[in-house]
Protein: TetR family transcriptional regulator
Organism: Streptomyces morookaense
Amino acid sequence: MASAQTSSPAHPGPGLGLRERKKIQTRQAIRRAAYRLFEKQGYDATPVDQIAEAADVSPSTVFRYFPTKEDIVLTDEYDPVMEAAVRARPAEESPVEAIRHGVREALQHIIDTDIVELRQRTKLVREVPALRGRSAEGQAESAVMLCGVLAERTGRPEDDLEVRVVIAAVLGAMQEAMMHWVDRGQTEDLAGLIDRTLDVLGRGLTL
Amino acid sequence: MASAQTSSPAHPGPGLGLRERKKIQTRQAIRRAAYRLFEKQGYDATPVDQIAEAADVSPSTVFRYFPTKEDIVLTDEYDPVMEAAVRARPAEESPVEAIRHGVREALQHIIDTDIVELRQRTKLVREVPALRGRSAEGQAESAVMLCGVLAERTGRPEDDLEVRVVIAAVLGAMQEAMMHWVDRGQTEDLAGLIDRTLDVLGRGLTL
DNA sequence: ATGTCAAGTGACAGTAACTCTCAAAAGGTG
DNA sequence: CACCTTTTGAGAGTTACTGTCACTTGACAT
């Protein structure tokens, strides 16, 4: 029971005020409680009220942090990471390769830092229809972002049909790799699977 | 006002009993009422109760015909058409080409018979997030079906990663073509757009 | 025709995911 | 310590659904 946060009110340790720290704590508490309950009794069988109780906050607060129950599972910050990684690729690289490498790097980063959550989340997405649908929505947002990047690199317009198809194919392939991964108990090498799927695209869908 | 359905109770005209005919009528009535209201005041702003009232049935009945509000828009019978079309392709044809042609034929058939509904539906799917998500779900079902067909043709297992990627890419490309189509006011040639997207895939995502 | 059975319908009650509003509590600041 | 802003919880309301049950209405045999 040693005091973690002591009296000194002058400067909050990590540059964040108490308020901000509490927000992060609450967010985590809700998430953790939710994941634990989902694990134990399933997503659909877990009402938000119960999550609130387990996280020791009011239901209103849960909805303040996560606009929908689905968001408790799906909210992430991967897009900026991916965008940065793709933009950081050398300009000489072909656009498709840039995306390929950028996306792979971003995923590798996630694997290295967040593998536990990635596993739980991917499993839930695979199993719960409502989450699958919502996840596709999120993917569409990533697609818009990547279309922007690819459009810049190629000088094509953002809403160019071909650009969109390239992005949709790449993201779809990655998604398939992830689903395959959970189907096999998340034992295989995810990055390797992703390479296999992207190879199929590079070969023009040859089998 | 010549009597359409007269007394003869022996054999119902089109092979369907009165019961079946009424069911179809009710289904159509609900759908039409819904589309009309969605058009006028938007999807989210239209409660199911109002649709029920407009279609002159009880809310319970609406849910009996369509398990969710989204299904009123999204329920279709395209999958069997697509499956049949793909299976009908000659065995010598490369699997990817078979899917390409089958899917295109199916779509052409839909365009020829149902273009009005296709337009309304696609527009709604584009605009309403809830429908986008649910539609992606439906696409996943089509994907499972097509994976089965492609697996048969290639002798690969149904859950083969490469097979899944091929299907995901093709369906994703078609989806992009459709979205592009509505974005441009549904004036361009849809089949032509689809060809362009599938060409991108065949070229290995070359731009 | 008519009685019987099965299918379809509507009224009603209940659950759960949100949404909105407002007052109390807690953090930040001079 | 007093003041102001942000965050929280309580409560009421909406809407998409689910389940039950009694009632109606086609179907079909007699």
Observations:
- Chain A has two domains: 18-72, 73-202.
- The radius of gyration of chain A is 20 Å.
- Chain A has nine helices and no strands.
